[in-house]
């Protein structure tokens, strides 16, 4: 089909608008530019007397303005994944082994339990927990569960 040279219309194959996926990418990029960034709080600054007041002011502003923030400089090692693995394996133990650590004493150094109360809770509120006191590791680690075998060794991940 030939184009009429007297016509002001663009040729049939002319493309005047960006493809929909290009328009969508441009809109997304524009939205991302307008989004606020998540506040980053460096806890190491709290240990520096000259920076402490400014770091606390940033923390206060993050809590008030956003309600959440990212923490860096906390000094916690990268062993969180290994600790979670040990915890998962504890909860995979047969109930009888876990039940040895059940206690009604909320101050117990080691306490296994569940928040599920069949009279009051729906299943959505159910959580099992293992509380391990960590404030004096040398004193409390011997009372920690002996299974999984590497749970007590996981203390080095906390240092």
Automatic annotation (TrEMBL):
Transmembrane parts of this sequence: none
Domain of life: Eukaryota
UniProt region (Disordered), positions on chain: 1-28
Keywords: Iron, Metal-binding, Oxidoreductase
Composition-biased stretches (Polar residues): 1-10
Record domain Non-haem dioxygenase N-terminal: where: 38-138
GO molecular function, one term: metal ion binding
Classification via Pfam families: DIOX_N (PF14226)
This protein's name: Non-haem dioxygenase N-terminal domain-containing protein
Organism annotation: Panicum miliaceum
């Amino acid at each position: 089909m030939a184009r009429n040279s007297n016509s002001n219309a663009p040729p049939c194959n002319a493309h005047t608008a960006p493809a929909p996926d290009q328009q969508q990418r441009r809109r997304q990029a524009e939205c991302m530019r307008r989004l606020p960034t998540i506040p980053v709080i460096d806890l190491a600054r709290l240990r520096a007397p000259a920076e402490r007041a400014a770091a606390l002011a940033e923390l206060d502003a993050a809590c008030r303005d956003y309600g959440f923030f990212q923490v860096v400089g906390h000094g916690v090692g990268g062993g969180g994944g290994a600790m979670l693995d040990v915890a998962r394996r504890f909860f995979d133990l047969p109930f009888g082994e876990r039940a040895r650590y059940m206690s009604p004493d909320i101050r117990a150094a080691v306490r296994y339990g569940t928040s599920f109360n069949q009279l009051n809770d729906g299943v959505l509120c159910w959580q099992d927990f293992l509380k391990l006191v960590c404030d004096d590791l040398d004193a409390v680690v011997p009372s920690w569960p002996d299974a999984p075998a590497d749970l007590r060794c996981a203390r080095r991940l906390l240092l």
